[in-house]
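Friendly challenge for the regulars: who can give me the structure tokens for this chain first? No prize, just bragging rights.
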Amino acid sequence: MRKDKKDFTLDVVSGIDEEIVDHHLAKRYKLWQRRGRRRPVALISLVAALVCVSLIAGVFMTMLPDILPGEEQPTGMAETTDLPGDVIKQVPVYLGMTVTNDLQPAADVKANAPVPQMDELSASSTLPPYTFSFLSEEEVPGSEPETDPETDPETGAEPATDTETGSETEQETEMIIFGQTYYALKNEDIYIHVHLENPDGFEIISFTLNGVKYSSYMFERGSDMENLILKYNVGDVDGLQEYTIDAIKYIDGESIKDVRMEGDRTVKVFVEDGNQALRLETDVEYTKMTVTPVWDEAFEGERAIMTLALYEGEVLLQELVPTATEIRDLPAGKRLVLVATYVEDGITKTVRHIFDTPAYSEGLYIVNGVIMGVGNCTDPVLYVNNPIGDRAFFDNNTIHEIYMGPGVTYIGDYAFASKGTENRTLKKVVCSENTNVIGQYAFQGCKSLVELELSPNLKKIPNFAFHICTHLETVIIPEGVTEIGTQAFENNYFLANLYIPRSVIAIGTNAFGLFFAADSSSLREVDYGGTMQEWQSIRGVSGAFLPGVIIHCTDGDLTTQ
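First reply, four minutes later:
Bragging rights claimed.
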């Protein structure tokens, strides 16, 4: 029975139509091909899913600071940009506006700009008062000494140093003064400078001033992405005019965005009539000013000043008698404006004279902008910003320290020298970086002088300049000095640390020697910035030092004979 069933089954199978088998085989083959084609589709779908997950995670991380408490994102940083990846750029920041009367680069309107003639209405008013970059609160004598910079708390890295000198690299910053009132004449072209902080160089496309939009093609030559310069005519209406900036636009990728406004949005310009019948002239000697009205010869009206007043910026300092010709008790180191009104052809007109008081400390005697004497000055610490004339501080024994501003371009002969008795009070001298001339005998006999900082622009140290400065221990001659005069540092018994740069080509007789052979000197070694051959080629070097001083050159040592 079993055998019969088995045979029956075999018969049925063998009887299946071969066409049906072929049909099923073809169908299975097509299904296999279709499954193979679905593999790349699945791979693409997987990649797309991963991208979506990454985008969702990025949005979540962007929103996380707003959801969870913690440190706020710096306000100056853009939250998103159109750049790929995680690049974050700093949003441009508006700082303020300044005004000039000629097309000069905006960066030139700085604290150290030269002071022009005081009777110039516009150019002079764009300059700030005297400032000292080195007289910060931490550096004023008597304050706490500065501590060494600490390492980075996150990375543990030491402060960056100059690879050649090993000294800390100091970032120089230039200061721009905002918030001033500027002066212009009728129908004069002025140049409004819009200052931005834009470290990532976003393209600035426009700004709106007093409701008028100015596009980038309207900016003057010299503009860049941090200084936008606009030429503007003040018109023929006199009086105070205000210019207010409303918005600044920049491009971030494919988007146009607003610059963040942090500075004062308004700048003030006082417009005056250039055809004035009256001109004011002044002669300033520290706290006293002489006023001289100068009338136009063609003026036929009543020649009288109606009102006279003294201002610092827009702040009234003194209301003066209209007939006053002398003004006393001026504040030191300030830019002041003398304002007078008069009547011309029935019209009241205003004239201004801008000037600077030329000193910081009381009692200085100043002639034509040069310090000629100390008068009743008894200040132990003195800050000056005028050239120092011959014998200006001669035989003075009250000043302990003197700091010089950028206006001190030279120091005259015998400026701090002594007569008979030595100067035993002056202990510290910090020269201006603009001081390029020191006179002969300028510091002779300053026996208490311990700290000396010379100007980097100095070219020559003249004869006897620091003669008998017995307590001067360290002297660094600036790079650029080419000549050291005869007996310039003679009889400086305690001088032990001396650097002479490679730029020196001549040294005078006994420049670092002693007058009496029986005296002793602390100078045993000298650091020189050049080679042994260059040292030997210096004119007069053989008679400049005592015998036995070791000269450390860049390629070896020499000993003076």
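The chain is about 15% helix and 30% strand. The first strand starts at residue 93 and ends at 100. Your move, everyone else.
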